[in-house]
Design goal:
globular; about 15% strand; three-stranded antiparallel sheet; single chain; DUF2252; about 475 residues; alpha+beta
């Protein structure tokens, strides 16, 4: 029987070894952790109660917003999965790994990928959410991504055969592109990106291709800050203000209002200081006009997030989004000491390490009580996938795109030669991941039903919102 590695065993990158030597090292690791081990999932003794994990991860959130979090998660097993990264992280800690660690996304599901504009105004396809980024076993991102396709496919009422194929394509695409990256230099990998227009052109569905091309054209022409300003603001005397749109966008009241009034300028000043000098000079042309709370995502609901409006002396706006940065759900589940005490810095540096190009205003900050935040532009030509219009063949193509983007992100901080040697060129890895994905999707449904029971018995509060 193979001596399977656990996530406590780490294999270090050897910068002196050749690509061929590192590839062979990956092949040798397979004897310790056979590829077939990655298909295994069974609930284990003393598994943490998923409802208890949800309650634990709600601690420290804005209390009035927590019911919105559970209301959103109860919409479907897919919505639940998006808000349950902590549950899966605790489970993945009990699975076999190769021992090859790198920078993880941490919440790697299919809705955390999409198109956006680089600072050079090129539209690329990439991962776009890094709240949970942390070093760890590369397999964890692959598994969470593949499982998300099975759960989303079931949500769309696609067949089990289709759903398994989606997960298989994630892993197969990851394998093929990681092999491609293993043949490049570190600098070539760093320069690599995925052109969104070219990616869409590879699609075989003419109708969806035309739909996506129209969205790209619109995004390319979209001057985000000016259009958002016309839609979202009004003038209160000489001061620009953001319109309330409750319950999702609102000016804080009560204790929260006092907190924002007291801390707003401090937080903004510390954010500016985290930026490079040329960005500091650019933003010195703007003054902070308004701050509102904004309820975002599924997993982030209840954390302190919002929008700040900056205005230049001549009336040009910039909208920035701030998000509270809490500890990654991975941290307590990997035996790796975190490099950053400041959780906002952790997210920003992880994002810069994994993305081909990051937002030019990406920075971090904290308030006087050391509540951590990171900040980026509110919107910058962002294009999200619309699952509701996808047919099975579209979903399969999207799975390949996400697998490709994940391989590119992992190749930047990991060792693509060693990972490729470990995976090999057969279908065994993709077969194992697709089997795991079906099993874990079943586990997710059981956990989702446990949450519904907890809501029914008043253990978790819900809101009649949205």
């Amino acid at each position: 029987m193979a001596d399977v590695l656990k996530n406590t065993d780490e294999i270090k990158f050897d910068p002196i070894a050749s690509k061929a030597q590192r590839y062979e090292k990956g092949v040798s690791i397979r004897k310790k952790t056979p590829l077939a081990k990655h298909q295994e999932w069974n609930s284990f003794k003393n598994r943490k109660d998923p409802v208890d994990i949800l309650i634990q991860t709600s601690k420290g959130r804005v209390e009035s917003l927590v019911p919105i979090r559970y209301s959103r998660m109860m919409e479907s097993p897919f919505a639940f999965y998006r808000g349950a990264a902590a549950i899966m992280a605790a489970d993945l800690a009990h699975t076999a790994v190769s021992g090859i660690n790198l920078q993880l996304c941490g919440d790697c599901h299919l809705m955390n990928f999409g198109g956006f504009a680089t600072p050079e105004r090129k539209l690329v396809f990439d991962i776009n959410d890094f709240d949970e980024t942390f070093p760890g076993p590369w397999e964890w991102d692959v598994k969470r991504l593949a499982v998300s396709f099975v759960i989303a496919g079931r949500w769309r009422k696609f067949s089990n055969k289709n759903c398994k194929e989606f997960a298989w394509h994630v892993a197969d695409s990851y394998k093929r592109h990681m092999l491609d990256y293993s043949k490049l230099s570190a600098l070539q990998i760093w320069y690599a990106d995925i052109d969104l227009a070219e990616l869409i052109e590879l699609g075989h569905d003419k109708e969806l291709k035309e739909f996506d091309q129209k969205r790209i054209k619109k995004a390319s022409e979209y001057t985000a800050h000016e259009k958002e300003f016309a839609k979202m603001t009004y003038f209160d005397g000489a001061r620009a203000r953001i319109k309330d749109d409750p319950p999702l966008i609102f000016h804080p009241s009560g204790d929260l209002e006092k907190l924002v009034a007291k801390e707003g300028e401090i937080v903004h000043k510390r954010y500016i200081e985290s930026l490079s000098e040329e960005k500091q000079i650019l933003l010195s042309r703007y003054k902070l006009h308004d701050i509102v709370i904004k309820v975002v995502g599924v997993g982030s609901v209840g954390t302190l997030c919002g929008i700040s409006l900056l205005m230049s002396a001549t009336g040009e706006p910039i909208f920035l989004q701030f998000k509270e940065a809490r500890k990654s759900v991975l941290e307590e589940n990997v035996k790796i000491k975190g490099k950053y005490i400041h959780q906002g810095e952790r997210i920003v540096m992880g994002q810069k390490l994994m993305q081909s190009a990051s937002d030019m205003f990406l920075g971090w900050t904290n308030d006087s009580k050391d509540r951590f935040f990171y900040i980026r532009q509110l919107r910058d030509a962002k294009i999200k996938s619309v699952l509701e219009v996808m047919k099975p063949k579209n979903m399969a193509e999207y799975a390949k795109a996400c697998g490709w983007a994940l391989a590119r992100a992992h190749a930047r901080s990991g060792d693509p030669s060693m990972i490729s040697g470990y995976i090999g060129e057969s279908d065994e890895f993709a077969d194992a991941i697709s089997e795991f994905s079906l099993l874990y999707a079943n586990q997710n449904e059981l956990d989702y039903n446990k949450m519904l029971e907890a809501i029914k018995h008043g253990k978790l509060p819900i809101a009649g919102e949205i």
